Amino acid sequence: MPTGVHLRDARQQLFDAAERVLLRDGPNELTSRAVTEEAGCAKGVLHRHFADFDAFLTELVLDRTGQLRALARELRETVGTGTVAGNLTEALTALFGPVPVAIIPLITFRDELRARLRRAEPGGGGLAILAQITSAVAAYLTDERAAGRIAADADIDSLTLSLVGGGHLLFADRDPGPPATATVHRLVTTVLADVVQRGTR
Q: Is the separation of the CB atoms in 140 and 111 below 8 Å?
C-alpha cells in the first residue's frame, strides 16, 4: 500500500481484508497481523488509522451494521407488495449473509469490542449485528400489521424473536453452505402461520 494513501481508501482495504480473513479462517484467526498481511500492507498502516485493534474492529462492525441498515430500508419498501413470507425469506437471507454471520461470534467472544460498541451505539450496540437484524424485522412486521396483512393482535416482539433466532440458527452453520431458500421460507411460514392474513403468505 503506497505511503500517504487516503484514509478512506486505507480503511476500506483493511475492512475488506478483515472480511476475507473472517470468512476464510474464522474469528479466532482475526488478528492485526492477519489483516495487514491480507491487505498487503505494513502493520503500522492499521495503527496509523486506529488507536488499537479493538478500535479497528469496532469501526469494522459499525461499518457493516450500516450496510444492514440499507437492507432494512429495502425490506420496509416491500410492505404491501409480494407476500409477507416471501419478503421476509429474501430479507433474512440477505441480513444473515456470510459477513454478518461471521461477525456475530467475533462480537460474542470479545468483551472489549462489545463494550466499545455499547458506547458507540447505546441501546443495542453491544449486540450490533443481531440488534440491527432484529430492528429491521420488527419494523417490517409492524408496518405490515398497520397495512392489514398481519393480524392486528399479532405479538411483534415474539414473532421477531422467533424469526431472528430461528434464522440465526439456520445460517450459523454454513458448512457445507447456507440453508436452501425453501428451508428459510418454511421457517418464516411456520412462525407467521397464525398471524398472516389469508392470501398474503
A: no
Start and end residues for every CATH 1.10.10.60 domain found in the chain: 1-49
Check whether domain 1-49 has CATH 2.40.260.10, yes or no: no
pLDDT per position as a tens digit, 122-177: 766 557 788 899 999 999 999 999 999 999 999 999 999 999 999 999 998 766 77
* CA–CA gap between residue 155 and residue 185 (Å, rounded): 20
What would the grid cell of residue 47 be? Answer: 495503527
DSSP-derived secondary structure for 141-187:
HHHHHHTTSB-TT--HHHHHHHHHHHHHHHHH--SS-SPPHHHHHHH
**Where does 64-192 sit in CATH, by number?**
1.10.357
Question: Residue 58: what are its φ and ψ, rounded to 5°?
Answer: -60, -45
